[in-house]
Automatic annotation (TrEMBL):
Part of the 50S ribosomal subunit. Keywords: Ribonucleoprotein, Ribosomal protein, RNA-binding, rRNA-binding. InterPro entries: KOW, Rib_uL2_dom2, Ribosomal_uL24, Ribosomal_uL24_C, Ribosomal_uL24_CS, Ribosomal_uL24_KOW, Translation_prot_SH3-like_sf. Belongs to the universal ribosomal protein uL24 family. Coiled coil: none annotated. It holds the Pfam family ribosomal_L24. NCBIfam families: rplX_bact. One of the proteins that surrounds the polypeptide exit tunnel on the outside of the subunit. This is Large ribosomal subunit protein uL24. PROSITE patterns: RIBOSOMAL_L24. Residues 15-42 form the KOW domain. GO terms for cellular component: ribosome. It comes from Deinococcus lacus.
Length: 114
């Protein structure tokens, strides 16, 4: 039997997807916006472009130079919110059926996101 993970709920679903534009709500990067590069529902984390960058020392390997590079690190998904396409502010997401298709809708403005 699989070991239960503490603190993870809702069947490993996230409110944001890869490619979404999000705003950071908490932490030292609060207020920054960026595109979601990767989303990990299992860990409940997201990687946001230009946010939470860390310095990585890379060892040279075949066909690749070594050195020091900047990379984005993961943030907990609860620290980010989707940007409303109409107002540009943070919004929650609701699911709605439009033309027989289930889509995501911004709660603040009612605009269809996808």
């Amino acid at each position: 039997m699989a070991k239960e993970r503490a603190g993870i709920h809702h069947g490993d679903k996230l409110h944001v997807r890869k490619g979404d534009t999000v705003i950071v709500l908490r932490g030292k990067h609060k207020g920054m916006t960026g595109k979601v590069l990767a989303a990990s529902p299992r860990d409940h984390t997201v990687v946001v472009e230009g946010v939470n960058t860390v310095t990585k020392h890379v060892k040279p390997s075949y066909g690749r130079e070594g050195g020091i590079e900047q990379r984005e690190s993961a943030l907990h998904a609860s620290k980010v919110a989707l940007v409303d396409p109409e107002t540009g502010k943070a919004t929650r997401v609701r699911k709605q059926i439009v033309d027989g298709k289930k889509v995501r809708v911004a709660v603040a403005s009612g605009k269809v996101i996808d």
